[in-house]
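In this supplementary section we document a worked example of the pipeline. Step one takes a protein sequence of length 472 as its only input; no multiple sequence alignment statistics are reported here. Step two produces a three-dimensional model, which step three serialises into structure tokens for compact storage. The input and output of this example are shown verbatim.
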Amino acid sequence: MKTPKRFPSKTFDDAAKARDYIKEIYDTNTAFLREAFEDFTYGRLGLDKKVSAFYPYLRLETKTATRADSRLSYGFVTQPGVFQTTLTRPDIFHHYYEKQIDLLIKSHGTKVEIGVSGTAIPIHFALGEDFHLEKDLSVDHMAALPTIFDQPDLTIMDDEIANSTFRAKEGQPLPLALFTAPRVDVSLMRLKHYTGTKAEHFQNFVIFTNYQFYIDEFIKIGKARVGHDGYTDFIEAQAEKRMPQMPAYHLRRADGSGITMINIGVGPSNAKTITDHVAVIRPHAWLMLGHCAGLRNSQSLGDYVLAHGYLREDNVLYRDLHPSIPIPALAEIQLSLEQAVSEVTGYNGYELKKIMRTGTVATIDDRNWELRPSVRQNMRFSQSRAIALDMESGTIAANGFRFRVPYGTLLCVSDKPLHGQLKLPGMADSFYRERVEQHLKIGLRTMEILREYGPEKLHSRKLRSFNEVAFQ
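The serialised model returned by step three reads:
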């Protein structure tokens, strides 16, 4: 087997030095794989060779279950023992890794160990988001590739840790993070595929929408804000022949605390797909801004709905997070959304009730739900006291809960099917254009308010279990 130079395991009580050693290991090993791949493509590497390089690991052994700050929901392990995770892409996660390591050292008063793991780096991930094996290799090279280079292994890319179903084998370290390095890498690659932008551009505050009108407005507002309030530049989704499935746009700040907006399209499947991958970036909050069917006669078109709970009939997350598990409202998100609605619309206190209702949002997987028999159609909505219905919000909130990402929903009533006001082309187009600018401004203002809270307050203890990983 051909492998890169050896790195000894080292212990650190300085988070910055630990982070630098992670980077040295990762950069050396991925550079080695890229060099070997170049030799392979030009016939300079024998086909009897096996080439492997491995992810760095972080390991903590502690005899205490303490924490530096009891108010924090992360940064400590919940029991004495040995804990470990593999790490990737220090170019993206360098600030994140340093912060998590620093908290571990302070909480447990011990050093952390950095070394080379036994988990191989698949060649696809070493080559990065811009290299497409199937496009750039011949048929013969593609056939020989798996015998020479390590391939992605789905058996170590599942979400058992996030789902709280992981059980360590005897003698195996407990996890430090929700995601292993290969699980992170596959999502970083998928983000480029689905959104048309690289993972390095994603910001810590993410808005999801299902209408291009919102994206058009975000592009206009985003470009105007560059150079103000710490925003440095605006990155747009790139299309080679056609736009990607879920294009993303990034109003960036140097510290990553800007705003990313993604048009996820329609339906819970898309909502789960994109949040499965955005979650590995470890954002500080994500919101759903979109339109909904108002279920109450007292609502008017253009009214806002602030979700406090969800009736989940999306049928895409039930294997990972059963619908019987409640998705709690998060106070910091709810208060920020309400404050932003008040600031942008000018309505305050009791007057807000004229344009906004709070309550349960029903999320379903059937766009033509109106065609069900009325008894079946209405019973669950009535029993749950749902005030609005859509196809994405419950899924996005549930995946936020599952992945410990603070979440929220503010919808705008675009039709009232139960009361004879169906969504039809002329009415819909006129409505969307009139309401979108105000709705988006509310979403952007909400993210600014949340940024002022800081990650320590945002990552609520409500999102963490009693036997939780240390990494935020």
